[in-house]
Write a structure and sequence with these properties.
single chain, alpha+beta, 3-stranded antiparallel β-sheet
Length: about 110
């Protein structure tokens, strides 16, 4: 009979964590205060893009650092959201939309 393991090695802990993640436990959450969220990021919901297409528009964020990426989670138009020319800060990112007056939700990280 094999002896029982009384403690977990770091390697076992890493494998168990990867198994947990790969089993569907990654969660963006539904809001910035959702306790289920386990990916660091910021939800920006229902933002209306400018009435002029391809114009920088600000999106406020509160991550404590300058984000690197954004993902479109919802959009009401056949449009492309892309990075604007104004530099991003820890408080505001600037994006552009290929069509006018689209309503978009984003996850920024």
């Amino acid at each position: 009979m094999r002896p029982s393991i009384t403690h977990q090695t770091p390697q076992i802990q890493v494998l168990q964590n990867h198994t947990r993640i790969l089993s569907g436990n990654v969660d963006f959450g539904k809001s910035n205060t959702d306790q289920a969220k386990n990916i660091q990021g910021w939800h920006a919901l229902n933002i209306t893009t400018p009435a002029t297409a391809n114009t920088d528009f600000p999106v406020p964020v509160s991550l404590g650092y300058i984000p690197d990426f954004f993902q479109v989670t919802s959009i009401n138009a056949n449009a492309v959201i892309y990075k604007g020319v104004t530099p991003w800060t820890a408080e505001i990112i600037y994006l552009r939309c290929s069509v006018a007056s689209a309503i978009v939700s984003l996850f920024i990280h």
